[in-house]
Structures are given as structure tokens and as C-alpha cells.
Fold this protein.
Amino acid sequence: MTTVFFYEKPGCINNTRQKKLLQDAGYEVVARNLFTESWTAERLALFFQGIPVSEWFNRSAPQVKDGLVVPEQLSADQAMELMLDMPLLIRRPLMQIGEQYLAGFDVDRVNQALVISWPESEKGELERCPRTITCS
């Protein structure tokens, strides 16, 4: 059985839903708290390889929503420094599957790493917070 290390915001409705989809597809999910994990720039950078800096961010984070942090205006070093200081800015979930690292629950990228047959009812938005209020 393939193990997915799943770095989440505990209690997040969408992260709970994403974990259930992975478990229902037959994968072992080891959930870890994104906010209490000991991150280094080198380790965190593994999850963002090949992804534009602007896509590293949790768009629901208050600092991003309020315009205090503008991901499109940041260098990789600036973005990493901010995320290490404020993990709420990190796009989630972060997932490690063997030697593959993913940021966010983009169905196409997840499907490249894992073979999953998505239920028709789950083919919509799997990454954005389903609440009308913030899930920061």
C-alpha cells in the first residue's frame, strides 16, 4: 500500500475531504500538522519544485486576501522566508508520496503521482475552501 504523508491544517474541512478521497482510493494517509512541523527552506522547497512562486501560497490566508502579501511580487527567497515565519501562508495540503512532493490538491498533479478514479461527485473543486467564510 502506498503511503501519503499529508501535511494539513487540522480541522480544515477540505483537508478532511481530501484525506478521505485518498483513503477511499486505497492509500494509507499519514496526517501531519502543517503548523507544528519543523520546516527548513530546503525541505519546504521540495514541495514547490517546478511551480511558480505565486502558486506556493494559500490564497485564503488573511495576509494574502487583505493584500498584505502579494505572491506575484515576491522572489522565491522572500516567499520562503514569509512561509517559514507564517505557515498559514503555505498552500495546502503538502503531500509526500515516496520521492514525489506536491503542494495543493490539484487533481491532475495528484493523479500523476497516484492512480485514482475520482467519484463523479468529487470532480469539482477539491482545493478551495468550500466555506463562504475563510478557512485560512
